[in-house]
Amino acid sequence: MKRAFTRSAGFTLIELLVVIAIIAILAAILFPVFAQARAKARQTACLSNQKQIALATMMYTQDYDETYPVNNFSYGAGVTAFLTSWMIHLDPYQKNLQVFECPERKVMTTTNVVVAGRTFRLPDRSIGANEWIVGRVGHTAHTAGTALAPIAQASLSRVAETPLMGDSVYLLFNEPRRIAVAGWSGATWWQYPTTVAAVSEPSNARHNGGSNLIWADGHVSWKNQRAVGLIVRTDTNWWNTFGLPVDALSDIRLQ
């Protein structure tokens, strides 16, 4: 007896195109969500790293009469060793240099600093510290001089509102614009955007339109671009905004 073969039904071209269109639409919807979730995870990882830095800083202040670490020129020859020494001060309290590396940073450059025979590999375009508190003011002062007298936490009149460390385009920030444009990926840090429009542009921020910050009292938080932009000034009067102990340009500790 001859077996009858039946023709199985398949997808028509129109049906196949409809399926492909549906998949494309779903991909267009989901991919940005996945990207946002990944960026949020990196923001959280960075905030966790900064929390460790904050805890190390608070332990340091407890050991040194409630004063903050200060950059020390004696740590090594050259500007780089001086500018990175605030990180080296904190190393005994965390023993992990990777906490200074923001996973969302756009520039991956690092600096090698040798102190007492040990090499510290430190990122120079990831986390910065408030120059008015931990460093000297002015480039010429970075290249010579003795260690600064540290600033006490009690001397800050607005300690919970003063940025101490955080996302930055360089190792130090002397004004909030370096925080606001922390996501900038230009080749040279000193040419970072400084116009009001650029500072107010969320895409220039590092984490979902904002930046992670460590405050002088030890708490950490994310600050959106608009909030950071509100404290941007066009002059060098930033220390007055946060009630730093004295005029930074006349204080011998900052010269």
Instruction: Give the helices and strands as they follow along the chain.
Output: HHEEEHEEHHEEHH
Strands of the widest sheet, in order across it, are: 5-3-4-6-7
Overall structural class, as computed from helix and strand content, comes to alpha+beta
Number of strands: 7
The major β-sheet equals: 5 strands, mixed
Q: Please tell me the overall pLDDT.
A: 79
Radius of gyration, in Å, reads: 25 Å
Alpha-carbon distance between the two ends: 106 Å
What does this entry look like structurally?
This protein is α+β, with helices and mostly antiparallel strands and 255 residues long. Helices cover 35% and strands 13% of the residues. The chain contains seven helices and seven strands; from the N terminus they run ααβββαββααββαα. The chain has helices spanning 13-63, 79-94, 131-134, 177-180, 196-199, 225-229, 238-241; strands spanning 110-115, 118-123, 127-130, 163-167, 172-173, 210-215, 220-224. The strands form two sheets. Strands 5-3-4-6-7 form a five-stranded mixed sheet. It has a two-stranded antiparallel ribbon with strand order 1-2. β1 (110-115) and β2 form a beta hairpin. α1 (13-63) packs across α2. The longest helix has 51 residues, at 13-63. It is elongated and about 85 Å long. Mean pLDDT is 79; it is low at 246-255.
